[in-house]
Amino acid sequence: MTITAPTRPDTLADPARVPTVVVTGAKGPAGRALARQFEVLRAAGLALRTVGADMLPGADPAWDSTAVLPAVHDAEYLASLRRLLERVEADLLIPTVAEELPILAQTGQSLAPDSSCAVVLSGAGPSAACADKLLTMWALDAAGVSIPRYRAITVGDDAAGLIAWAEGPVVVKPRVSRGGRGVHLVEHRDDPVHTAGSWIAQSFAPGTEYCPQVYRSPHTGEVRVVVVEKTELKQGRVGNAAHARRLPEGEAVDVAWLAECAVTALDLVGPVDLDIRRDEQGVPVVLEVNARFGANSHLAPELLHAVLRDWDLTSAVARPGATGVHA
C-alpha cells in the first residue's frame, strides 16, 4: 500500500482567508452532485468559495462563479486549467471528468502554480488503471477481486461468437468512456456489436446493481463505504442510474466488502465511485471503477466531508459556532 498524504496549501496560513475549491465537469452529473453538497455545507456554516469549471459556458447559481475550460484532449486544456487555478487562487482542485484523471495524475503538483493548490486524486498508476476498463479488469483479476468474465473486442467478433464465449448475454462498452455512453446489451445472435480493440465485453450479470460510494484516506488507508442501490437504470437493464437509494448500514455487506477490496487492490485514495452487480448466483462482481466523485455522491455526503478533512480545509473554513458540519 502506498499512501501519499496531501499537504495543506500554504495559502491557508491566513485564517481570515476564505478557501477556494475548483470543481471540473461542473455541469455534469458528478459536478452537479457536488454543487448540491457545497450548498448544504455553506448553509451549515462553512465559508468556502466554489468555482465550477466546464466546457459549456453559462452562469450557474449552484456555484459562486463559473469558468469555461477546453475539452480534455485539447492542446490548451492543461494551460487553461493552470491559468484558472492561478487566477482564482485555488486551494483545492476536485476533478470529476474521467478522461482528465490520468493526465492530471501524471502532471502532479506541477499543475498548480507554486504548488499552492492541492489536487484530490489518486496516483498516476491507479488513475491510469481506472481510466481504461480493460486495464481495470486486468488489475482486479490479478488481485483476485470478483469480476465478470471479460475480454477485449477484436475485429471479426460478432454477437453469436460473444454470446457463445460468455454462455449467455454480454455487455459491450467502450474501454474509455464516461458513464453509460455506448454501453449496450447483446442478447441475440443478430444484435449489432462494435468490433474494435477500443471496446470490451463482459458477461452480463442480471442481478441487482449497486454504485458504492467509497472514500479511502490518503493519510491512513482507512476505507469508508456507503452502499447505494440503483433502483432504476436509464437504459432499462444497463446504463446509468435513473434513480438510486442509499442502503442502511449493514445491508448488502458483501457489496461493501467487495467495493473495499477493489479500491484497496487498485491502491486508490480519495473518493471512488464503483459499479457492482450480482450475477446469476447472487454473487457481486465489479463492473467498473471510477477514481473520482460520482453522480450519486450526494447520497454519501461524508465523502466530501472526508476530502475537506484530509486535504485540511475544514479547520480553515469552519466558522465559530457553526453547527451541522461533521467532517
UniProtKB/TrEMBL annotation:
One Gene Ontology term of the biological-process aspect is: SOS response
Q: SUPFAM superfamilies from the xrefs?
A: Glutathione synthetase ATP-binding domain-like (SSF56059)
Task: Tell me which UniProt keywords the record has, alphabetically.
Answer: ATP-binding, Nucleotide-binding
Show the InterPro entries listed in the entry. ATP-grasp, ATP-grasp_PylC-type
Q: Where is the ATP-grasp domain?
A: 137-322
> Superkingdom of this entry's organism?
Bacteria
Molecular function per GO: ATP binding; metal ion binding; ribosomal S6-glutamic acid ligase activity
GO terms for CC?
cytoplasm
Q: What is this protein called?
A: ATP-grasp domain-containing protein
Name the species this protein comes from: Serinibacter salmoneus
Instruction: List the lineage, top down.
Output: Bacteria, Bacillati, Actinomycetota, Actinomycetes, Micrococcales
